[in-house]
Amino acid sequence: MLQILELFGGIGSPRVALRNMGIPTKSIDYVEIDQKAVDSYNAIFANELPFKTQSVINWNLKPDILIHGSPCQDISIAGQKLGADKGSGTRSSLMWETLNIIKQMGMWRPKVVIWENVKGVLHKHMRKNFNHYLDEMEKLGYSNSFEVLDAREFGLPQYRERVMTISILGELFNFNVIKKQKMKHLNLFLEKKADDSYIVKAPSMLDRIGKPKPGFNGYLPIIGEHTWTITTKQNRCPNSGVVPLKNDKFRLLTPKECWLLQGYSEQDYKQASKVNGKTALYKQAGNSIPVPIFESIFEVLLN
Length: 303
What we know:
alpha/beta, 8 strands
């Protein structure tokens, strides 16, 4: 049975991917500090003993695969660019706790370490931290490969580019051999009839639909063949885009649509919606990693 360790685990996209693939998997631990995300995770995997909230600091176990998606708010272009320098105390600086955890394991090492984050890690204000992370992983015996992957390349009609870094003991991961698939039609992910409460009515938002306004960077893109990056909030500007309706009206994406656009099943969403409301469900979708990307990566790793 494959043993995984989920740090900054969110709602468990890598474990959902392995479940979808029929791979017997045991999460030897799941580390997530957001109680509402923990509630959704436990609801999705309701047949097993529930996990509790916990921090990644001062933590240790021995998995086959370690997966971490440390907070990106201080790295992303949309954020404040506070960075992730070691010791800075920012949320994104928690990336260094993963290295601490591996070092605390002593001579034993996970064979594979997977790190997902925003493209901002490759920008000039963050690149030194990214390179330092790669250097430290090499010192621990890992060979590093990274690639910018877009959810649209894995069947999801969502423009979402993220850096996937895969570190393996003794070998390089070849991103060229992972299977990609044609983007599916957006209508497969949209609800046929969404509640009227999702219709955009605020004048400040209506005024920003379609095109950027002079002197203002944020706007609401109109969704065509795909949405834009699923974010933690939709009732704001900018967001993941608005769905055009009849009579020059537009609506926001629903929480369910956001979950589906990240590759979760309707059953996963149904289970999570039993324990969480709209605000938390939006946040959890926006913070997650597209499930099909993990499926393609695991297919190569496990073979």
